[in-house]
Design goal:
about 160 residues; mainly alpha; Hypothetical Protein Yqey, Chain: A, domain1; 2 domains; 7 helices; about 75% helix; about 0% strand
């Protein structure tokens, strides 16, 4: 069973069991699926697109939590956290720190990158390599790691 089918089954179960945060989150996923299918660019949404949808919705909820906490709305923040837990259950296991570090090291060795000016080239190659695994990863964290490595090389190399 693919991720899309698992989400649809989960939505049915959440309806039967009246799990409101789960149901709300899964309805958002369903809306994103329908939007993608109706756009004409995808007749059938596969696991790769589902990972992108789920990752985007989780990222949006994390940003919302930050804003709610700044505004003193802990009740809304906890609801968003419950939705994140529901969505994360449908994602395959993410890439480990070691796998991300290995991909960064390999790309930097292949490209010979030595300064932060080459960030775009390195990030493009690293993200391409990580996406090819079909497993989710945090692009922001990858960017920070690549920047740190390039900065360390730049300061030690001059």
């Amino acid at each position: 069973m693919g991720i899309k089918e698992a989400v649809m089954e989960g939505m049915k179960e959440a309806m039967k069991e009246r799990r409101e945060p789960d149901l709300s989150a899964l309805r958002m996923v369903r809306a994103e699926i329908l939007k993608l299918e109706k756009s004409g660019s995808h007749k059938e949404v596969g696991d790769a697109q589902m990972i992108e949808i789920l990752s985007r919705l989780i990222r949006q909820r994390r940003e919302s939590i930050e804003q709610f906490r700044k505004g003193g709305r802990e009740d809304l923040a906890s609801r968003e956290e419950a939705e994140i837990r529901a969505l994360e259950g449908y994602l395959p296991a993410g890439l480990s720190e070691e796998e991300v570090e290995a991909a960064i090291a390999a790309v930097m060795a292949e490209t010979g990158a030595r300064s932060e000016k080459e960030l775009g080239r390195v990030m493009g190659a690293v993200v391409g390599r990580l996406k090819a695994t079909g497993r989710p990863f945090d692009a922001g964290a990858v960017n920070a790691k690549v920047r740190a490595r390039l900065a360390a090389l730049g300061s030690s190399g001059t």
